[in-house]
Amino acid sequence: MQSITIGPNQAGQRLDKFLHKYLPAAGNGFLYKMLRKKNITLNGKKAEGNEILSAGDEVRAFLSEETFAKFSGRAAAVTQSDCDRSANEAAFPTEKRFADYTAAYERLRGITILYEDEDFLILNKPPGILTQKAAPIDLSLNEWLIGYLLKESPALAKELSVFRPSVCNRLDRNTSGIVLGGKTLAGLQYLNGCIRERRLQKYYRTICAGPLREAASIQACLVKDSSQNLVTVTELPENKAPGGMPVQKQSFIHTAYTPIAVTKEYTLLEVELITGKSHQIRAHLASIGHPLAGDAKYGSGTVNQDLKRRYGLTHQLLHAGRVVFPEVTSGTGSSLSKKTVIAPCPDFFRKLERELFGTGQIPEIK
Q1: What pTM was estimated for this model as a whole?
Q2: Which of 164, 165, 216, 337 is the most buried (most CB within 10 A)?
């Protein structure tokens, strides 16, 4: 018999969701059969699986050691033929995953902490680092976050089988700036809710090709081709209200920008990301004839070659520089209530600002 006492980072979720994390290689049919037969109980009673767990609840699993080893992934003897290895590794922190956490924390350079409290960890990501793994061999900011927390509190290792801290927003590899992380389940739920409900104000700094002399708020539709990791921007249909889903596989996008400095060739912009879709800023500005400097996917080859030759620029200049949190009077999120978090631009970005726009007219992010 295995007994698990629910802690704060497991509370607030459905029992069946918890069981999928605790027994990651077990399917729905097996878990619900165990619940029906009272081989898995909640607080000593039969459970349906839809119960919401509270801190202090006790989950008991009356399973043989062989069955437990097969579905939990905890035994070294479990082989690929015993269970679905891909599902198991995705859900359970194997020794390799622990090694990844340590390696990411030790090897990924330039990541800085902008804010930290009991529930949240807000980081400044340099360009060139993935926010999350794109392939099993990758090391990303997500592993760095867990590696940092394990170094600060080794006891976290005991919780990683059923809860993992995580980043909540994703930046492209070569986009720098603010990445929000949740250290607790409550922190993750709060941040994900803010992102989903668009309660965060998110501002980016970028350099685009051509002069933009007036602030504007632009709207369009975006279509994503996942196979090519590419998006296409189209106009809003006349008969569809902004904010909707005009046609299947299209998403409404809304971007606002304000010029900071302008020349005949370039504009330094502050961009507010009102909706948050893949490659939104890069594709949206390119669609109106002002692609980002250095953007190999949506940009101008002529502009990019010139910037590479003159300044060594090899990636798009896009930096998530400021996030403003909503007002929260109590509970999770109150520590961030109305708080503004700022990430300074990378040194290379600041250097190029001075080269392209001169000195004395470029304000810091605030």
Answers
A1: 0.81
A2: 165
Please spell the DSSP secondary structure of 265-324, one letter per residue. Answer: SEEEEEEEESS--TTHHHHHHHHTT-PBTT-TTTS-HHHHHHHHHHH---S--EEEEEEE
Q: How far is CA 259 from the centre of its chain?
A: 28
CA atoms of 300 and 315, how far apart (whole Å): 12
Reading the block at residue 35, the tokens are 């619940």
d(CA 251, CA 224): 9
Q: Pseudo-torsion of CA 38, 41, 47, 50, nearest 10°?
A: -130
266: β partners:
209
Confidence of residue 265 (pLDDT cuts 50, 70, 90): very high
CB neighbourhood size of 49 (10 A):
18
User: Which of these, 253, 285, 287, 250, lies nearest to 271 by C-alpha position?
Assistant: 285
Q: What is the pLDDT of residue 243?
A: 52
> Would you state the pLDDT for residue 74?
56
